[in-house]
Amino acid sequence: MKITNLGTSTQASFYVATALYKQMLHKKESKLGLATGGTMLDMYESLVTLLDKNQLDVSQVETFNLDEYIGLTAEHPASYHQYMNHILFDQYEGFDPLKCHLPNGAAEDPECEAARYESLLDERGPVDIQILGIGQNGHIGFNEPGTPFDSVTHCVDLTESTIEANSRYFDDKADVPKQAISMGLRSIMKAKRIILLAFGEQKKEAITQLATGNITPDVPATILHLHPNVEVYVDDAAMPDLS
Ligand code: GLP
């Protein structure tokens, strides 16, 4: 797997935004697998700029987010629903809300909701491009270390390190949900093309583990070595030492 250093996060974000833009340009009914997190902010901003300047018709595009916190309604300011509205769907007119999917974190029966989401992915997929960030412990989506490689969309108990890392998006660490619904590793692997982005010193260890080539559920992102079409883009700070 090639890990490409694109220098700065701004450059890498623009590069990946362009990949998504081109995908939608060439296939009106593209299916995009979308990720949240701080890493993606500049990428979505660049994407909105590209869409806006070129007035691309995105009405046929269908999107599938990786995950959502259990217990947060779509209106909760820290929910991934709100993140996506704020950063993309409210920024560029034309996305069809009925085609923009996230798991429902407020569902009465989260297990049932996870099964519904996996069926939706099976019916509507496969995804053309899946965008991924990475957790400091190597998680992708919310697939924490130890998640089986054959997992489908499921309910997850978040690890202490993920709760700690994500507490910056909440007023209080105590407000961070302890569980989430996440696409599983097998669900992610069904995408035709996968692009992972990682920026900053705090991601260097996870990217170094990915670069070693060992494939282990202890570092969930290493499953990507088994996918034929994966690109990994990092900035200077997240680039492993190659010596
Ligand atoms: C969260 C998300 C992941 C994301 C990761 C990194 O836990 N579920 O999809 O990749 O954290 O987030 P950030 O980009 O904020 O570091």
Automatic annotation (TrEMBL):
Q: Which residues form the active site?
A: 67 (proton acceptor), 137 (for ring-opening step), 139 (proton acceptor), 144 (for ring-opening step)
Entry EC number(s): 3.5.99.6
Q: Please give one Gene Ontology molecular function term for this protein.
A: glucosamine-6-phosphate deaminase activity
**Domain of life, source organism:** Bacteria
Q: What are the alphabetically sorted keywords of the record?
A: Carbohydrate metabolism, Hydrolase
Report domain Glucosamine/galactosamine-6-phosphate isomerase positions: 12-225
Q: Which reaction does it catalyse?
A: alpha-D-glucosamine 6-phosphate + H2O = beta-D-fructose 6-phosphate + NH4(+)
Its job: Catalyzes the reversible isomerization-deamination of glucosamine 6-phosphate (GlcN6P) to form fructose 6-phosphate (Fru6P) and ammonium ion.
Concerning its family, UniProt says:
Belongs to the glucosamine/galactosamine-6-phosphate isomerase family. NagB subfamily.
The record's annotation in NCBIfam families points to: nagB (TIGR00502)
Stated name of the protein: Glucosamine-6-phosphate deaminase
What organism does this protein naturally occur in?
Staphylococcus americanisciuri
Give the source lineage, highest ranks first: Bacteria, Bacillati, Bacillota, Bacilli, Bacillales
